[in-house]
């Protein structure tokens, strides 16, 4: 919402400065977005007379002008404008002036050998429109030496406020003035508005063609004919104001409707009566109807839209935009002025469907003052007869304004209860009354009747807002929120703790935390098991941000590749965030995932004097996953690592982490070459992903006591075994078998070598393990150690088909 | 040979021994079983007491001195050998070691700031609530007092999911406020929660991304009022920005789910691209807040005449940018390793009130 200071002062009697007005507006919730003070910006530009304009000695298109600026001797200016001529009045800027239209600051210059001390300006150079064909050519009575902005009436600062959608009353300058008056900044001017005396009945009746159910679509419609108008340009003052707020003056009748829209928040429409065929009917549009509107576009209408029609068909889309065919132009002599009320919801819906944004729609969808419909028509009629002449008819009226009055039972203590501020009853009363509220009764509880222009006021809380808004929120003194009476307890859930810890744990492994989009390209979603239609956005912002991600991995993979493309090939990235399996809350999970590319392993990337890092492999990803589980304190007793994983992983170089076949918690491995190709990934890249919600929680225990520590007094001993097994046997099976051979004694089994090649039969591999034996009761004899070793060998052979390597 | 000559000779040999092996040869030749000094010692047994009295001390003295010289020489040789070894054993300590994983890893500023916010609010008795990113229209809008078709809905550029069989469309939550409803419907007052999370709006330019982060606060009890709200927000800003005081400006505003509503600006100065709080002439909008709207309380089955409270919403990305000086929002989500290394936080810098939010 834009207006000028002088326009505001038409409604508000105040001596307040522009700064005070702007500050007050923001303080009461009418946030000032911008104040444009052209007079200040254009101060150096003065009206000047071109005394002489001689041909430039060295340039055909330039003239050397002598310019009288109203101060001192005439100034020499080189000017390239085709219209520069002796005797004309134009606008002069001295050296040192900033030229907004060109974004330069003038200096004394020499143009083709002739000195130039300033500039004669076009409107475009002043930032005032695009009439850049030549310098401004002012009328002969323009006073030389006067600042141009003052003379041209540009010295009226324009204020733009960022209006919240709950305040239709402040879509008008009058409403804004009322709010300011309530703060005591000035006095609201209330001009008497006697009804217009019609000179005869309205010629055309208006029909509201709705059944009872639809009556609310247009509850009220008032129309008046003014005969014998002369529709030329509107007066300068009106044009200046409309221009100042960014509207283009068209003709007096149209300008009056626009002026009323901003001055009073009362959108109107004018029909050229000569072009209207018969009586007007307000009704739902019929399928197939369309309207060529005043904005030059044609709109196809549906029966959900409300129109004004005559004998020729649809002439206007109610409350939104009029039709070209019945528009008013210079030839209009008889005009029909419409002032109606429309359903805000229907206006909003129609406007959205048709994609029309007009000042009328903006107001009607927020709620126009129903009590001002007829008074607004009268005010507009008076402007028409004042400016264009003519004689008005009586109004033709259909329907009636809806009842808006609802009384709020208001205890004054509500202000203290909700706002925590003690205000005097007198102050609260004055605030409400100056905003137009009626207060009945006295004492602790009163009846408050909101004014007709405030559809946003529903109940007590709204009244509290009005009171503290006008009083100023800054008057509310902060008061401590009472602290709890006990020492703070933990506030995070186990999952929240794990989510936080997961980030720290993974970052501690040298990974960088990324936050990538929740929506990914559809192709990526499909590759990672997603792509369900229910998870595809209906209105994605870009085609590559289209589907809710089923996994964190694709986003991280693409990020790693982007970094590689930028010259950082060894990205090691992780993310902890939400993934989506369905559009239900239960379908959302929290996952932790990491990718490592190139040589970006845990130990560090790239070449190093102490040994270069090799390319990352599945075990880097496994190490990250296992480290995360350990850091989260996941009881890993039952954890199984199964070969293979989902389709996005290399089938032979991936694993699945599970606590049983149905409790899969994650995967790790090398990215499948096909997936890598589809995502445009180059080079080796590994990943893991763990679903944090799926991880078992530690058992709740009644105390924090740790299990007793049993220390043996006897030295542990270690024995090495090298087994030859089929290459299909997992090393994990060998380890498991060795551990199970002598559960009491074996406390550790480590794989220290895996070998395939010369010395080992084709199709087999050698797996070397170190078994730690921890005697508990006594030192083992050599014979006992031999016996244990034999049992280990036997057990591993039995379970894996292994033989001891010769 | 007289003793003096023997001694001179032996000591000369000790001195001349250039390594441990040579020294051992000297020792054996002198003090070994058949060594020259040992042979002399053996003669003591056959002597008369008088002879022994005279020659005993001489022979024993000889032995002791030879012995001493041998020990001294051995120590000197060992010392020299160690010196030689140490002189050879030299590493170039200027060679770089690999950077530790803990030194390389980084926490994203959003995660860090959420941890900071949590630390502050947990001290004020708030717990952390969460909700799904994919919300129903009812929870994202209607229950929060955005009637269907109301222009207020257009303040939010909403992402929609496809309509289901009944024509209902879910949305990506446009704010964290639906979790207010979830919380109030699930839990009896008193309620003190913060709700950090991802939010989505169909908007993209220099200062807007289609995904961003918000933290919502909600307090519901029998007395929480706007004055308490001011205190909570001022305490939060002072603590979060780690300054002695902040000046805040509360401007009346409009949110469908609060009444009265306010937007809050924070006073700051901008010098050379750096924003400082608690000084200066500029105002920066940082959050929206208000008393929970009676309709919202009713929508959660609460009686607005007996319980009351306030809510606020802060842009996490925005306050992260303000505190840590990132000039642009979009790189937050681009995973550029250079940006993450520069603006990210070390993994062990866990924000707490005990140790300070930042180190």
TrEMBL record, chain A:
CDD domains: PheRS_beta_core (cd00769), tRNA_bind_bactPheRS (cd02796). InterPro entries: aa-tRNA-synth_II/BPL/LPL (IPR045864), B3/B4_tRNA-bd (IPR005146), DNA-bd_dom_put_sf (IPR009061), Fdx_antiC-bd (IPR005121), Fdx_antiC-bd_sf (IPR036690), NA-bd_OB-fold (IPR012340), Phe-tRNA-ligase_IIc_bsu (IPR045060), Phe-tRNA-ligase_IIc_bsu_bact (IPR004532). It is an enzyme of class 6 (ligase). Binds 2 magnesium ions per tetramer. Mg(2+) binds at residues 456, 462, 465-466. Keywords: Aminoacyl-tRNA synthetase, ATP-binding, Cytoplasm, Ligase, Magnesium, Metal-binding, Nucleotide-binding, Protein biosynthesis, RNA-binding, tRNA-binding. Its main location: cytoplasm. The keyword Amino-acid biosynthesis does not apply. Its EC number is 6.1.1.20. This is Phenylalanine--tRNA ligase beta subunit. It comes from Methylobacterium jeotgali.
Automatic annotation (TrEMBL), chain B:
Gene3D superfamilies: Bira Bifunctional Protein, Domain 2. It holds the Pfam family Phe_tRNA-synt_N. Binds 2 magnesium ions per tetramer. One of its GO terms (molecular function) is ligase activity. It comes from the Bacteria. Residues 120-331 form the Aminoacyl-transfer RNA synthetases class-II family profile domain. Belongs to the class-II aminoacyl-tRNA synthetase family. Phe-tRNA synthetase alpha subunit type 1 subfamily. Tetramer of two alpha and two beta subunits. This is Phenylalanine--tRNA ligase alpha subunit.
